[in-house]
Specification:
Blueprint: E1 9-13, E2 18-22, H1 27-38, E3 54-57, E4 61-69, E5 76-86, E6 101-106, E7 112-117, H2 129-140, E8 149-150, E9 153-161, H3 169-185, E10 189-203, H4 207-216, E11 220-227, E12 230-238, H5 245-253, E13 258-268, H6 271-288
Parallel strand pairs: 3-8, 7-9
Antiparallel strand pairs: 1-2, 3-10, 4-5, 5-9, 6-7, 10-12, 10-13, 11-12
Helix pairs in contact: 2-3
């Protein structure tokens, strides 16, 4: 199909666990779907692309997790005491902890992870700290709320226990992962959604209809400017509301309007939406188990 039509782009998304189809307009994927079903005789399900949500926290929390496993011979043992806090630029050192080292990581999906070594008295050997960090990052790639990436968190490891024989890297990786997950769920977790600035260009006589439609998309209209014989309406809209907006705008204005959009920021989703998405993810996880 790529040989027949160079404008078709396929992408296997590791984040969404979906095959993404990039096309020109909304008729294009319908044509591709028809070809797959009728020419190649394959059954393929077309669904909406998932939204790149992010997860973070709004307060601090502490947790402890002990990983202990014995199955003959050397076992596994690792215990981690952890504090997590929302990270922001210029935040002070943690209160009540002895800071020994700081590891600041720019995450591939945006935001930061700041990992602090606050161990005193050799409670955990320094060679196990990278394993704890690895467990934290692994959980951040599959957040507790919806399985989305986690961002902007500071993690302080301040105590723990180890065993002279049974402690190893895998033990502390598992302990770090579960300690982070436990603390995250107790730190007022917040789901973030991508927000875009949308510019709609429409004739003067269509302004009222376009603005009314934007308000139904739960958008925030920020202003309006004259652009020749057109009016440019500027609004901020969450990406989840933009699916099929092209068809809606075309139908509303008889094809006389156009729009472009650009990513602006991640913003908190409303409580009701977060609850709905979290419950849906929990159900999928239980069904998978």
């Amino acid at each position: 199909m790529r040989e027949e039509d160079a404008t078709v782009q396929f992408e296997v998304s590791q984040e969404f666990k979906q095959v993404l189809l990039h096309c020109q307009g909304e008729l294009h994927p319908q044509v591709i779907h028809w070809k797959i079903a009728n020419i190649h005789k394959l059954v393929v399900t077309f669904d909406k692309p998932k939204i790149a949500y992010r997860e973070t926290i709004r307060s601090s929390a502490e947790s402890t997790y002990r990983h202990k496993k014995q199955s003959g011979g050397a076992g596994q043992f690792g215990e981690v005491f952890m504090r997590i806090e929302p990270w922001y630029h210029g935040m002070p050192d943690p209160i009540g902890l002895h800071l020994r080292a700081t590891d600041e990581i720019d995450l591939e999906w945006g935001g930061k992870l700041v990992f602090l070594n606050c161990i005193v008295g050799g409670a955990i050997d320094a060679r196990f700290l990278p394993s704890i960090l690895k467990g934290v990052i692994e959980k951040m790639q599959n957040g507790p709320l919806t399985g989305s990436y986690v961002r902007d968190v500071r993690v302080s490891v301040y105590d723990g226990k180890m065993h002279p024989v049974d402690s190893n890297d895998i033990s502390f990786k598992i302990a770090g992962l579960h300690a982070f997950r436990k603390a995250f769920t107790e730190a007022a977790p917040q789901l973030l959604e991508p927000v875009y600035e949308v510019e709609v260009f429409c004739p003067d006589d269509q302004v009222g209809a376009v603005m009314g439609d934007l308000q139904t998309q739960m958008s925030i209209v920020e202003g309006m400017e004259a652009e020749g014989h057109f009016q440019k309406i500027i609004a901020r809209v969450s990406l989840s509301q933009m699916h099929q907006y092209s068809s809606s705008l075309r139908s509303l204005t008889q094809g006389r309007a156009r729009f472009n959009m650009q990513f602006v920021e991640y913003a908190p989703v409303p409580y009701e939406v977060q609850k709905k998405l979290t419950e849906a993810y929990s159900k999928r996880t239980v069904d998978a188990d």
